[in-house]
Design goal:
Helix content: 25-40%
Radius of gyration: 20 Å
Protein name: Beta-carotene isomerase D27-like C-terminal domain-containing protein
Structural class: alpha+beta
Distance between the termini: 23 Å
InterPro entries: D27-like (IPR038938), D27-like_C (IPR025114)
Strand order of the largest sheet: 3-4-6-5
Number of strands: 6
Order of helices and strands: EEHHHHHHHEEHHEE
Organism: Urochloa decumbens
Low-confidence stretches: 1-41
């Protein structure tokens, strides 16, 4: 989720209306004060460097919503001064940033087994949905080629804030070529956490299980720890963790604050 071309997605929050009969205004270097523009991505940075993101209020709102749900399962922060605790308590959903979101994820891992971490993420995902949503999803999107390709197309714009720039790619599922793959060029979550265990336990496995078991639409995620890209394949049943190459992945000794450099496999995967 391979090197990528510079990419930037900008969404205009307001658009000037041109009166009938008039030619469109000449483009300017700066937009009018009333036209707010929100830019939410850039080109992925080389391995070892962090990509620069410019998150708007909508992206921050998504981060805040997820972080607030995950706080229920997170260990408490270190004691803060009263004035900082008040500020944190009053924080609106759009006041969160990605670093805070990753910090909550890291605190969910503390004191939990691999299975408990994955279950916590599952509960968070379910809490984000209205009652009966998984059953409705199964009716709307049975595991057909069309459903797989449709969900791949939706993943690119809707999960940009979470994983960074991505694109739909052609993959082979059960001998059939289809555009139900998504290539995440450099995963924002892995890049910011620098943690193999967080990638696998807090993203890969629970997301695979959620789509495959709750939604009935198989999904396999193949992270590449060499360049932090990741391939998502809708329609492909994921293998058991014991048979998955990620189960043998060592830590990022220079990136992860929880790493055990001497261990042949990331301890969080055991």
């Amino acid at each position: 989720m391979a090197g990528a071309l510079p990419m930037e997605l900008c969404f205009a929050a307001a658009r000037a209306v041109t009166p009938a009969g008039r030619a469109p205004p000449t483009p300017r270097k700066r937009r009018a004060a009333g036209a707010a523009v929100r830019c939410a991505a850039t080109a992925p940075a080389p391995m070892g460097e962090k990509t620069e993101y410019r998150d708007g209020p909508l992206e921050r709102a998504f981060m805040g919503l997820f972080a607030r749900k995950m706080e229920k399962y997170a260990t408490a922060k270190k004691k803060q001064p009263p004035e900082l605790e008040k500020t944190t308590a009053k924080k609106a959903v759009w006041d969160w940033d990605y670093e805070s979101f990753v910090d909550v994820s890291r605190r969910v891992m503390v004191g939990r087994t691999r299975a408990q971490q994955q279950e916590a993420v599952r509960e968070v995902l379910l809490s984000m949905l209205p009652p009966g949503a998984p059953e409705q999803f199964k009716k709307l999107f049975p595991p057909t080629r069309w459903a797989c390709e449709f969900n791949a197309a939706l993943t690119v714009p809707f999960f940009h804030w979470l994983v960074g720039p991505s694109e739909v790619i052609e993959v082979e599922v059960d001998g059939v070529k289809q555009k139900s793959g998504v290539l995440i060029k450099k995963c924002r979550y892995l890049e910011n956490s620098g943690c193999v265990g967080m990638c696998v336990n807090m993203c890969k496995i629970p997301t695979q299980d959620f789509f495959t078991n709750e939604f009935g639409l198989p999904l396999t995620m193949n992270p590449n720890f060499e360049d932090m890209s990741c391939e998502m394949i809708y329609g492909q049943v994921p293998p058991p963790l014991e048979e998955d190459p990620v189960s043998k992945q060592p830590c990022y000794p220079n990136l992860c604050s929880m790493s055990t450099p001497s261990a042949p496999v990331c301890p969080k995967l055991q």
